[in-house]
């Protein structure tokens, strides 16, 4: 007997769950690097205490190495959690119990990442951050992997799955906006409460409380689907009996999924190069202030929102595959244009160039934010109809594994490419943060500056010397080359995704279901 469709209000509850975990993951993406690798303040600005050593090895930042390690850890736990969810059975269903288990700990450990034991540079802080980050990613995986596996089970038709994918894409973008409000909340707290006489510690604690407020909000959102959706009532699912190794083999044996996952790896590698480099494009190529990055991201998200209903309508008219390929081609041209922005030959002012880049990027971001989850749901449904094995969790875990592998490779590749064009002495002082949207530029003070600072402030565990930001040479050639490099991976993504057979997939689903 076919299960009833999920009512609209419960679809909204499901989407609110995505708002919660999106807030958490974007707290990490937007604030972790800036928190542990703060930019040196300019004269007259308030300082923020350094908490860990900046450099690790081979010119890579400590926070960059730890972040890459965290992503890899997250990627390898995905299939384990996915298979456990696929094989689990209870009176509450096989997905919702995992959401219940993972939500609160993920929010708690997200906050604890920003609450190290000491307010000065300490190896204990590094160990604390690493441990909390690994636990955060573990519990986030416990929540997110079964969460995505619910899409093909709650959405009984391609149209229902497309609607769910659209709603969660919107709430994911809203999560970015919510996570970005931390500075505003911190400023309100700092203005109205006194946490410490030391201004740098006052700023630190204000940010910690602000992040705590956001984590509480995220936790509440994550439990909306847990308490409002009765999985057994709406989900067409049954526990898989396939052993873990065999399930992994069968999942990646599916050619449609294999081409989809490999194209996703290339796409996220290219996209992460772009998001990692956006601060460099603004400051090195366009020669604008770093604060302009925030304006660009806001414009990009708003324009992307405007295209959501258009993407949904076009996908119904011409198909999801053609729409995604169009998005890839737009990104291909956009990545190539990175090489030319900021050149004197261009007649447009730098600000206009920046706005044009993000306005164009908003179109493929809307497309690729909505449709891939719906496409994967189609692939997973056909596989379960043909094999009799429900392995939706592993399909989504396989996708997230490829995404995270692409993101990790992008961080490491980007950090090497931007050094092209720099001489040996300049490389020593290159900005160590190449791991996130905000890329602080910090130079060590010259010997004379050090003497002045030492004369003004004593180094102790209770106070922090704030280094004044200096002009830093940038490797313009390396920054420009990241655009064509990203376009090469985008071209590979187009080739691989082109092999996905959408028409055959949908026809077989309809035929087996008797529609």
From TrEMBL:
Pfam families: MFS_2. Keywords: Membrane, Transmembrane, Transmembrane helix. GO terms for cellular component: plasma membrane. The chain crosses the membrane at residues 12-35, 55-76, 96-114, 126-152, 164-189, 209-229, 257-280, 292-311, 323-342, 354-380, 401-422, 477-497. Gene3D superfamilies: MFS general substrate transporter like domains. The keyword Transmembrane helix applies. GO terms for molecular function: symporter activity. It comes from the Bacteria. One of its GO terms (biological process) is carbohydrate transport. The keyword Ligase does not apply. Belongs to the sodium:galactoside symporter (TC 2.A.2) family. PANTHER family: MAJOR FACILITATOR SUPERFAMILY (MFS) PROFILE DOMAIN-CONTAINING PROTEIN, MAJOR FACILITATOR SUPERFAMILY DOMAIN-CONTAINING PROTEIN. This is Transporter, major facilitator family protein.
């Amino acid at each position: 007997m076919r299960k009833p469709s999920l009512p609209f209000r419960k679809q909204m509850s499901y989407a609110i769950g995505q708002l919660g975990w999106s807030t958490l993951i974007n707290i990490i993406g937007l604030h972790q690097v800036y928190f542990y690798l703060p930019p040196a303040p300019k004269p007259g600005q308030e300082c923020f205490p350094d908490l860990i050593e900046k450099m690790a090895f081979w010119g890579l930042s400590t926070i960059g190495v730890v972040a890459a390690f965290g992503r890899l850890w997250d990627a390898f736990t995905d299939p384990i959690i996915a298979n456990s969810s696929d094989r689990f059975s209870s009176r509450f269903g096989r997905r919702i119990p995992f959401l219940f288990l993972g939500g609160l700990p993920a929010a708690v450990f997200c906050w604890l990442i920003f609450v190290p034991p000491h307010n000065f540079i300490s190896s204990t802080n590094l160990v604390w951050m690493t441990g909390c980050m690994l636990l955060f990613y573990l519990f986030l995986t416990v929540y997110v992997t079964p969460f995505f596996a619910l899409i093909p089970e709650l959405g009984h038709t391609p149209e229902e799955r497309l609607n769910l994918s659209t709603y969660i894409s919107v709430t994911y973008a809203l999560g970015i906006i919510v996570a970005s409000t931390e500075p505003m909340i911190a400023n309100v707290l700092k203005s109205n409460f006194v946490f410490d006489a030391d201004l740098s510690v006052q700023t630190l604690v204000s940010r910690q409380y602000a992040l705590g407020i956001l984590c509480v909000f995220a936790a509440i959102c994550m439990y909306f689907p847990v308490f409002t959706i009765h999985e057994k009532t709406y989900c067409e699912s049954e526990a898989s009996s396939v052993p873990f190794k065999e399930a992994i083999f069968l999942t990646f044996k599916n050619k449609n999924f294999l081409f989809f996952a490999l194209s996703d790896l290339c796409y996220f590698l290219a996209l992460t190069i772009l998001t990692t480099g956006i601060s460099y494009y603004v400051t090195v190529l366009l020669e604008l202030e770093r604060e302009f990055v925030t304006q660009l991201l806001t414009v990009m998200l708003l324009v992307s929102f405007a295209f959501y209903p258009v993407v949904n309508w076009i996908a119904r008219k011409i198909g999801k595959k053609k729409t995604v390929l169009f998005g890839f081609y737009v990104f291909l041209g956009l990545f190539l244009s990175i090489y030319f922005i900021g050149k004197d030959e261009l007649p447009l002012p730098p600000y206009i160039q920046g706005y044009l880049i993000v306005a164009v990027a908003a179109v493929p971001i809307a497309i690729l934010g909505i449709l891939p989850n719906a496409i994967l749901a189609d692939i997973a449904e056909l596989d379960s109809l043909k094999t009799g094995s429900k392995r939706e969790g592993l399909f989504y875990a396989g996708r997230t594994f490829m995404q995270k592998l692409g993101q990790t490779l992008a961080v490491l590749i980007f950090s090497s490419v931007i050094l092209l064009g720099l001489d040996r002495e300049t490389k020593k002082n290159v900005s160590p943060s190449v791991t996130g949207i905000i890329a602080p530029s910090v130079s060590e003070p010259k010997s004379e500056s050090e003497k002045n600072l030492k004369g003004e402030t004593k180094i102790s565990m209770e106070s922090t010397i704030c280094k004044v930001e200096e002009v830093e040479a940038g490797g313009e050639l390396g920054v420009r080359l990241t655009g064509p490099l990203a376009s090469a991976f985008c071209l590979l993504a187009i080739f691989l995704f082109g092999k996905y057979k959408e028409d055959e997939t949908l026809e077989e689903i309809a035929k087996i279901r008797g529609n």
